[in-house]
Amino acid sequence: MNMSNSLTAIKDGSGRMSRMRRCEIPLLYGKPSDRSITDAKNWTTHLRKVGRLKISRLPRYCVLSFPYIDVGTYLLDSYGARELKASGEKTPWYFFEHQGMSVVFAQTGMGAPRAGATLEELFALRVRYVILVGGVGVLDSELARWTILVPTQAIRDEGTSYHYQTPSIYSFPSPKLLRSIRQVLERDGKRFVEGVVWTTDAVYRETLEKRDEFARKGAICVDMEASALFSIARYRRRHVAALFYAGDYVGEDRWDLRVEKDHEEKKRETAEKLLNVSLDALHSIWLKEGNPST
């Protein structure tokens, strides 16, 4: 499999558009700079007009996660958070303060298209810094469950990112946020592993061939959102990074869910740990920016 060569031919070859059309790959038609028919600002404005969205802006700082990262009770008890049921989402968002910094904890559905749409809506509501928190499959059995993983780049094996960035193998998190996450983890003496995340839309098509190829390119884990969110943030000139915990094992010859004794309790403890690291990383940015109120 020579992904690099095939993408280079599409990106750099002469007569690019005609070659795309001959290949009949609709995903690669046009350019990310082409004007969109609508955008998230249009949508959020509509939601406010029909009474389905009660706010006009959000805090600049956000932790974005999923319903399985169940920290709602923790936020209510520890931060006195207030809930908002965001339109289109089944679970509430939470608003609170962390050491003087206003934060929103937003939740989204799984997969690059759904998470990407949520991110666009967050940006339309004035969010600027987002840390994605979740669990991921790992490609190395030596990465024990619950190990903290920090992606330094993402392999773009999904479709959403190609609407925001021209074809390439990788997309990248915000250097500013990535640096802040590292500093907090190192300050607190928490063990973590950095590497590439492989992002795919097709959870049931994680093939051995792709697994081996992407492992050779540095992939240590696999998710369904990161590469798209990194590309959207770059396109919108915002900041996104990610913080994961090691989950199931996507092995060379098998899949292992790696369910442990006291599994739910360990997941809750790990989720709270990642939330607190994320809040401290965002707070560091907040301090350097002069404590903006919104």
Please provide a written account of the structure:
There is one protein chain. The protein is α/β, with parallel strands linked by helices and 294 residues long. The chain folds into two domains: 31 residues, no CATH class; 235 residues, Nucleoside phosphorylase domain (Rossmann fold). It has nine helices and eleven strands. It has a five-stranded mixed β-barrel with strand order 5-9-8-6-10, surrounded by four helices. A hairpin with an 8-residue loop joins strand 2 and strand 3. It is globular and about 50 Å long. The termini are far apart. The N terminus is likely disordered.
Q: In sequence order, what are the helices and strands, one letter per element?
A: HHHEHEEEHEEEHEHEHEEH
The fraction of residues in strands falls at: 15-25%
Q: What is the CATH architecture annotation of the largest domain?
A: 3-Layer(aba) Sandwich
Annotation field: number of helices: 9
Net shape: globular
First-last Cα distance: 47 Å
Structural class: alpha/beta
Taking pLDDT < 50 over at least 5 consecutive residues as the criterion, the unreliable ranges are 1-20
Could you estimate the helical fraction of the residues in percent? Answer: 25-40%
What does the radius of gyration come to?
Answer: 19 Å
The average pLDDT value, as a whole number, equals: 91
Q: Largest beta sheet, briefly?
A: 5 strands, mixed, barrel
CATH topology annotation of the largest domain: Rossmann fold
